[in-house]
Amino acid sequence: MDPFDPAIHYGPNDAGVSAFSIALVVVGLLLGSWAFGALYGIISNFFKGNQNDEE
């Protein structure tokens, strides 16, 4: 059996990163930042509502 030669048998997935995984990371970052902003808005409105009840 011939030894594996990476110079000859190199392919696009040999680096371990595919276009699909890059797209998943980008979508995850977008959804994560949106979820953080939405949660921040909900908590902010909740505390704003509590301050109005005390006055």
Structure in words:
The protein has one helix spanning 19-54. It is built from one helix and no strands. The radius of gyration is 24 Å and the shape is rod-shaped. The chain is mostly helical and 55 residues long. The longest helix is centred in the middle third of the chain and has 36 residues, at 19-54.
Number of strands: 0
- From the alpha carbons, calculate the radius of gyration and give it in angstroms: 24 Å
Estimate percent helicity. Answer: 55-70%
Q: How far apart are the first and last residues' alpha carbons, in Å?
A: 83 Å
Task: Indicate the multimeric state.
Answer: single chain
How many distinct helices?
Answer: 1
Mean pLDDT: 81
Order of helices and strands: H
Poorly predicted runs of 5 or more residues? none
Alpha-beta classification: mainly alpha
Overall 3D form: rod-shaped
The fraction of residues in strands falls at under 5%
User: What composes the largest sheet?
Assistant: none
Map the helices and strands.
Elements: H1 19-54
Structural descriptors:
single chain, 55 residues, mainly alpha, 1 helix
Summarize the structure.
By secondary structure, the chain is mainly alpha-helical. It has one helix spanning 19-54.
